[in-house]
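Example 3.2
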Amino acid sequence: MNTFVLGMRLLWGSGRRGRVRFLLMALGSALGVACLAAVLTIPSILAAHDARTAARQPWPGEGRFVYLQLSDPFGSQPLRRVFVARTEPGPSLGAPGVKKLPEAGEVVVSPKLEKILAANPQVTGLVPGRVTATIAPEGLGGPDDLYAYIGTRATELPDAAPLGGFGRRYSSQKIIDSGTLDILRFTLGCIVLLPLAVFLSVCARLSGESRARRLAALRLVGLSMKDTLRVNAGESVAAAFSGALLGIVGYLGINELGARIGLPGLQWYPEDGWPELPTLAACLLGCPALAWFVGRHGARQAARSPISVRRTAERRRPRKYGSLLLIPGLGVICAYCILSAAGRDPSGGSASAVLVPAAVLLTGAGLVLGLTPITAWIAQRVAGAARKLPLVLAMRRTEVDPGSSLRVATGLVLLVFGASLTQGVLIELDQVSRRTAPVQEYSIPLANLSSQQRGQMTAVHGVDATGMAASSWAHTLEEDVPTVQAVVATCAQLAAFTQSTRGCVENEIMRINDPALLIDEDARPGSNFPFLLSSGGILDVSVPSATVSIRAFQPSEFAGPSLLIPPSRVPRGTFLKDGHLVLLSDSDPATIRAVLDGVGAVAPTSAVEPVGIVIDSLAQLTAIRSLLVVGMVLGLVIGVAAFVVSVADRAMERRGQVAALALLGARAGTLRVVQVLQVLLPLGVGLGAAIVAGWLAESSYLITGGGAVHWDWEGLPLLFVCALGVLLAAALASVPMVRRHIDPEHIRRD
């Protein structure tokens, strides 16, 4: 305790510079802890959502109620409805967030669904009945949940099951499935936690040279080696712990704001984001422990050899052992890339699930630990061949003190490396979560649409083409009457919905032939099939001998029908009664969400089937994108903060050297060029290595994922542009850090 008090008295007695340094260390730790808490509470937010959705799931059993559970897309969100009906008199049954289940004609809805019903009365067709209450938060996954308990009669639920109660062990309505959640955790760890550890280390080593000289002075006046280390650890731990407390308070405020705003595909209640005990322990104990370890490592030289610190003895060359981690990491990654380039498919198996993540971690660690010796080696070679004074000064300084490059560039290097990996994760999820066809279809029953709504559907943003699909009418169910599937479209519409079309004739009924499908034996030339019209009439269609050859996408409403009926053959003002309106758009997830939202706005009570995809998968992909974007933003904040703090700290530490060079006659322009080159060399080397290693790591992940895309050529130019932008911003930010003003206190007499 006496040693700690001594350290604090020396800190506050060292003047304004010491207090500013302590404040900067605390603020840096606060920023890092806030980011750490945000990352560590993401699994807690998802787990709280899944726990509530599991608790509300009905299960069959003996009871006085029956139930029927439905899930339908409402725009780009799933709308879940539970129809309940009483079969026996007696006390009512409650559900999570609901005091008692609704009786016939009553509904209990989520708050967001209640707002939708108030703003769009036509939606009441989906939720028939009088709203008697709203579901409390304990019965909802999140504030944006669309959920309803609808009371009805048992005779109206022929497929209902007896309701035994609510609550299951596992949720079938998870935001993110378990396998994808593991990938998300690993990715967030790479793009946030690794740069965060570097940033916290940088904050713990602020003004490292000045602190080392002060500790050396204490050692020279008689303080023991152990007490000298304790003085330094006390200062570092005090700054880190106070910063950790401030960071937790800041995160709680950010959580309250974020819970109210939400993310696309993910909204939560504020209490879901409250840090749990392990998170608090990691923030309040882990951050000071890291500061103690880093501070002890930096102060050991001053405690062991104070004379060498005071007299600036020759520094030891950086060790090269850390760069050896690149050998196994890049070895595994390149092996998978070579196998793919050779035409072999190494996907699948349990080995790749372990080897690829391990190789990514080894490569990231190798980039961090190998940056110092590589930078020193390059600086030595460039300085030996250079003839320009600014370049020689910059390279010699980098050669003497390459460790500063680790603090300056590592955060941004890891950010670029993690960005490559994030691109691979998004590409892999895109391949898994959506159909592989370049187009997306949406099927809507025509009977549920008015003529005005049918016209508005064609104007929905993102819709590229429309068509109709229907089945012929069977006048009796007692006999096995042959039927045929048909599409109503022009030749241009048919071409838009298929991969290829050959032999189409406008305004002619034609028989469809798709070589990839079996021939419909009922659609023989000369056969007649009736189609029921919305006006009550019948459209008789005779199967012609003329055919149109197509190659349809899979799955598709146009894959399987045997007849092509031109719209001109359907009487004006009518449509095929049992038909479906089919919309076509691009298969990009953003376009799909826009079309679903547009269709929901035009006809909210109509059932919409996105052909070939599940709306829950689309919602999951949206949530994952949002979380990865949050991770990238946090990683960017951490990387930029580490860079700014490191450059500013290094400029402050080298004011004595700048003053000495100025006394020797160095010009201001020369000093600024030296400063810029000292920053750009490690940053350029690190970013170049991160782009190459990150792209190879991304490719190995895609290759072992088994998807169709193995090489992300489109994302490579984006990484280069980002790296050039980072270099330009770093160069501009480094210029103001050099001051040519000579302060006598910066000139060391020794």
